[in-house]
Every structure is written in structure tokens, then in C-alpha cells.
């Protein structure tokens, strides 16, 4: 599957759709929450109804996702494009976004290696660790919240 950006003009709020079973992905969501001073992103786990619907809409298997999804300014982004979109909004991580100028064919293979091995390297959770009540407020419960 081609993982280039896809139009999503009906999604007006920026959202990160992540693998809630993945320790690394859940930590990323918590990091976004702590370091996103303007609360640019809403968050949803691919196991949640809204996250599952978005994953399926963009061709990502929510039961075995190959990528995080970021919908930003009406465009769905995947893999390193998604990572760089997140980094560009976080003051402490903006430096990382300069790597977006490298061609996708060069930067996505390391992403794929991590994605394939994320459960072995970082672990798999059986319950969501997003216990922070303020973080839970940012979670998307229904797709209508993004319109």
C-alpha cells in the first residue's frame, strides 16, 4: 500500500490515531499530551470505536497496524510523515522534524523496522495506561467530535 498523504477534508480537528496495545505508541501519546502546549491534537486508540473507524477508512488494519495515523489540516499522514507532523507541533521535538526533507523511501524503512518489532522491543499492553484524567479529556469518543 502507498502511504502518501490522503485527503480528509471532513476531519476538521487534528487527531493522532495510535496503537493502544503498543507501549511505545502509548508513551508517544502521553508525550504529546505533556508537550503539546496548545493542545493541537486530539488522541484516539485504534481499539476505540473512533480510532478503529479512522484506521479502516485510511486502509490501516486496526488489529495489526503498520503505522500511526495523524490527521492534520485535512490530510491524513502515515509513518514518518505522521511522526514529523507531531514533532513540528511539540517545542522540544521540532528539531526532529528537519528529517522530513529526506525522501520517504529512505526514512520509512527504519520506521517499518521499529513498527514490526515494537511489541518485542517495547512490550504489549493488555490495558490502556492513559490514566491521566487530563489526557483522557483529549481522547476522541466519537467521530462527530472531529467534524
Q: If classified by CATH, what would the architecture be?
A: 3-Layer(aba) Sandwich
Distance between the termini: 27 Å
Structural class: alpha+beta
Number of DSSP strand runs: 5
The first-level CATH class is given as: Alpha Beta
Average predicted confidence as pLDDT = 85
Low-confidence stretches: none
DSSP strand content: 5-15%
Number of helices: 5
Radius of gyration, in angstroms, nearest whole number: 14 Å
**Largest beta-sheet characterization:** 5 strands, mixed
The percent of residues in helical segments reads 25-40%
Enter the CATH topology name: Glutaredoxin
What is the string of helix and strand elements? EEHEHEEHHH
What is the general shape? Answer: globular
Total domains, how many? 1
- Read across the widest sheet, the strand sequence of neighbours is 1-5-4-2-3
Description:
This protein has 147 residues and is α+β, with helices and mostly antiparallel strands. It has one domain (6-134): 3-Layer(aba) Sandwich (Glutaredoxin), CATH 3.40.30. The protein is built from five helices and five strands; from the N terminus they run ββαβαββααα. The chain has helices at residues 23-35, 49-57, 79-89, 104-122, 133-137, and strands spanning 6-7, 15-18, 42-45, 69-72, 75-78. A five-stranded mixed sheet has the order 1-5-4-2-3, sandwiched between helices. The protein is globular, with a radius of gyration of 14 Å.
What does the secondary structure layout of this molecule look like, with pairings?
Elements: E1 6-7, E2 15-18, H1 23-35, E3 42-45, H2 49-57, E4 69-72, E5 75-78, H3 79-89, H4 104-122, H5 133-137
Parallel strand pairs: 2-3
Antiparallel strand pairs: 1-5, 2-4, 4-5
Amino acid at each position: 500500500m502507498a502511504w502518501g498523504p490522503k485527503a480528509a477534508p471532513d476531519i476538521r480537528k487534528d487527531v493522532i490515531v495510535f496503537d493502544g496495545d503498543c507501549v511505545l505508541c502509548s508513551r508517544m501519546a502521553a508525550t504529546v499530551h505533556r508537550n503539546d502546549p496548545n493542545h493541537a491534537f486530539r488522541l484516539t486508540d485504534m481499539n476505540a470505536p473512533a480510532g478503529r473507524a479512522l484506521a479502516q477508512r485510511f486502509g490501516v488494519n486496526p488489529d495489526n497496524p503498520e503505522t500511526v495515523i495523524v490527521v492534520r489540516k485535512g490530510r491524513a499522514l502515515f509513518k514518518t510523515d505522521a511522526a514529523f507532523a507531531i514533532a513540528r507541533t511539540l517545542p522540544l521535538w521540532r528539531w526532529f522534524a528537519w528529517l522530513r526533507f529526506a525522501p520517504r523511501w529512505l526514512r520509512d524503512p527504519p520506521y517499518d523496522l521499529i513498527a514490526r518489532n515494537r511489541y518485542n522491543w517495547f512490550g504489549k499492553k493488555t490495558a490502556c495506561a492513559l490514566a491521566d484524567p487530563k489526557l483522557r479529556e483529549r481522547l476522541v469518543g466519537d467521530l462527530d467530535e472531529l467534524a
